[in-house]
Amino acid sequence: MHYHSTRGAGPATLDEALVNGIAGDGGLYLPEALPTFSVADFTGADTIPQVASTLLAPFFDGSSLRPDLDAILGETFHFPIPVTSLPATQGSASLLELFHGPTAAFKDVGAGFLAACLTRLEGDEASPLTILVATSGDTGGAVAAAFNDRPGMRVVVLFPDGRVSDRQAHQLTCWGDNVLSLRVRGAFDDCQALVKGAMADADLDTRFRFSSANSINIGRLLPQSTYYAQASLRHFADTGNKPGFVVPTGNLGNALACVMAREMGLPIGPIVLATNANRTISDYFETLQWLPKPSLQTLASAMDVGDPSNMERLRSLVGDAEILRERLGVLSVSDEQIRAAIRKDYDEFGFATCPHTATATHTWRKFSADLRSNHDWILVATAHPAKFETIVEPLIDDTVALPAELAEMLSRPSRCVEIAADPGALADAMSEYFAL
Ligand SMILES: *Cc1c(COP(=O)(O)O)cnc(C)c1O
Asked: Model's pTM, two decimal places?
């Protein structure tokens, strides 16, 4: 399988796409053609790794990683991804729980898969690869956890001082010796500028061999389509119905993976995107004008994206707004509606949802009675509510129990180095820490 850029450059191999992250012309990598499957192709495949082994095999055709695919999947899916049914007054609804990984959010899947691939492609104990990541919260933790203690790999995480919650800060700073956590005296944009500057510095790049693991890497997208595939196959086998999905959406990676699974022939019904108050996607579907905006801060902070970069992939794969809005639904959910949904979820389901997941439960409740009854719905739960306890607990007037994976992480010692938002300070901190 070859990969080309959304802006025309190509072709590249999977190995090149994984290592480069972004195409030479600034576009995003997509496979030249999506493979297609029928339900019968998955006969006998039950677990996510089993389904994924069939689904992802064509994408690894010609890759040096092909013989390792099953081992990579085994490393990625070392935690469960259950679908639990919800008490619904109309139709059937269930929750796809993507939050049982090491950092209790769905980004653990993509980060784990990419780490397993990059370690095999580039891990070199004599001259390690250094993953640089600027984070405002979830991404940095998932990347640090995924690359933690992997031989031949180092991680440098930069996060803005005082702008992440205590639990988020802990999950950015509690890893092994190959992870350097930097608390930057500045904002997220300063962290991002430092990362860009360091990567463009030829001398630093030679010493550290920089790479990135950001969410546009094809290696984060591919494994995400596998849980949609497995959940839909199981639901279809059990009921004969193709389930619809409601996906909390920010940069559009998780939702795009769902669209790809449906394009490949998996038994998936309607797909509805739930965004927060950042309306770039919903405005596009309404006005047919693609107008990226600065991002707004909301309660569902991991979805605060005003210029979702995966839209470029979605348009290249499916088409522009006229076509997209026929194939996908979208609803923008306000902070007030998120708060109300968290309370309702707690009352109706008996457990709390995180602010991101609440955009999906709100969206589902807003469906017409027909839409609710004519399809079985799977609502995607992207993070555990205990990660956002300062928002959730006052709303439900109760505490959220820590899941084992988060409790384990929070019990580890935490350490980080504080630096000024200055390129020299970053270079010094890395040189000192890694003794280079
Ligand atoms: C990243 C994230 C999202 C948004 O996912 P995209 O792939 O960027 O659309 C939603 N919820 C949580 C908890 C996240 O961390």
From this structure: 0.95
Please state, in angstroms and as integers, the Cα–Cα distance from residue 227 to each residue in 51, 53, 107, 216, following that order: 9, 12, 13, 18
pLDDT in tens, 35-54: 999 999 999 999 999 999 99
pLDDT digits 0-9 by tens, 118-146: 999 998 888 999 999 998 778 899 999 99
Three-state secondary structure along 125-137?
Answer: CCCCEEEEEECCC
How many CB atoms are located within 10 Å of the residue 71 CB? 13
CA within 13 Å, CB half, 257: 30
Tell me the mean pLDDT in the region 94-112.
Answer: 96
Ligand 1 centroid – CA 278 distance (Å): 13
- Secondary structure (3-state) at 221: helix
Among 103, 106, 167, 259, which is best to mutate for testing ligand 1, by the most ligand atoms less than 8 A from CB? 106
Residue of 372, 369, 398 whose CA lies nearest to 385: 398
- Please give the CATH architecture assigned to the domain spanning 80-105+219-401: 3-Layer(aba) Sandwich (3.40)
